Amino acid sequence: MKRLCVVLLLMLGLSLAGGTAAASGGESHKYVGAKKCKSCHKKEAIGNQYGKWSESKHATAFETLASDKAKEWAADAGVSNPQTDEKCVKCHVTAYGVAAELLSDRFDVKAGVQCEACHGAGKDYRKKKVMVDREKAEAKGLRPKNEMEKACTACHNDESPAWDAKRYSLADGSTAGFDYDAAKKKIAHPVPEGYDAMAESGAD
To answer: Of all helices (H) and strands (E), which one includes residue 138?
Structure first.
């Protein structure tokens, strides 16, 4: 509990240093956490995006900071505790550095790199009647598709001690660091073609 409190203080008290996968300057929408996304996105009919995320390394990003390897890398960087140090936490939690009032009461820092790290703070666009209209959703905080790569490469870059260019192979067999298009395919979680959210009973 003490460790979690320290992390929360870091999240709430520090201003954002550079770009991160979790947040960007000028935040105005509220973060609700992956469990709120789960209420709709756990359904197979819509593609079970929550299930795919929960099985990914993003979902355990905060936990990995307690691993022996993370502690080894941290020591090399002069970091005593990777779960509390800004150098590590900024890319292993969602909404790092945002103001306290922009985190919902049940927002869980331990859930790692959650849906909103990539898609933007969801409080204002999460309702179906908003999400079915991409333009309206983006106006209410959904990250535009053309900004997704920037969100990913804010953390998937050579600043990370886990960076290994050989992990990212291109189609021609060469390696050039993080390949956004290839990485995107690995974590793809599309809504099935033909799915009609508004046809569901109780759609709001």
So the answer is: helix 134-139
